[in-house]
């Protein structure tokens, strides 16, 4: 439970059994907010297994899913304080600390998963990780949860006007907030672990998320109108507390890097496969109304979103944006 986990978190994280002739075991707490059976939850487990294997048990990664250790609003601070060693927040949740990361929240920035992969494995990926380093964070990888879809309680969201007057749950992100305002909606930031509860209390009419989050948390039970828009990308920055990373022996760092590369490759496949499979599951349900946005309808959304690009460029210049679009 939460209280027990909190207490665990206060115990020494690296303990030394050398007197007994044993090597030090290093314990890494990895906290995240989504369900275990999601692309992030499963990749975290995979990473933990790989690290344990590759280090012959010298390093143990303990994964805390569902925000059981820290919720959205808390996890980044907890990482910076060193109360937890690893987290993997969505890009949107990094934007408060590193405003340039807002670029990743721009709707229709990426064409498809291949486009995303190209960007993150290239120069832009390295640049984004360097921005984290400046804040005392060791960026280890980018994980994927695919593209976000729109959903609502009351009506299908197809034309921009359909959003008018509705309240939308958002992650804390300036770009996403403006995105819904441009559509005439009213955005409200809600921490992921509170979304279900607030749905039960009818606190908002719509939201955006990936199929695997919608499916694993049962959001579709409250908001059955789902528009497959693929308008925004939900990716994660997998990160470690920098001083903790620096304190690790070089050979351990090497093993962690290898395990992360492997877990990341696995995550990219898993994310694609899982979102596709669960979309089919939703499609089969009679209480869910799926609508696939046509290219023409997408263009209408894009026109609405154009000011977001202008504003981003005014604030941060066009360097990063051009690199992403040109790569
Ligand atoms: C959300 O808040 O909707 C997502 O960022 C949750 C997640 O980590 O996938």
From TrEMBL:
CDD domains per UniProt: PBP2_TRAP_SBP_like_1
A Pfam family reported for this protein in Swiss-Prot or TrEMBL: DctP
Top-rank taxon, per record: Bacteria
InterPro entries named in the record: DctP_fam (IPR018389), TRAP_DctP (IPR004682), TRAP_DctP_sf (IPR038404)
Sorted UniProt keywords: Signal, Transport
Protein family per UniProt: Belongs to the bacterial solute-binding protein 7 family.
Protein name, as recorded: C4-dicarboxylate binding protein
Organism: Geobacillus thermoleovorans CCB_US3_UF5
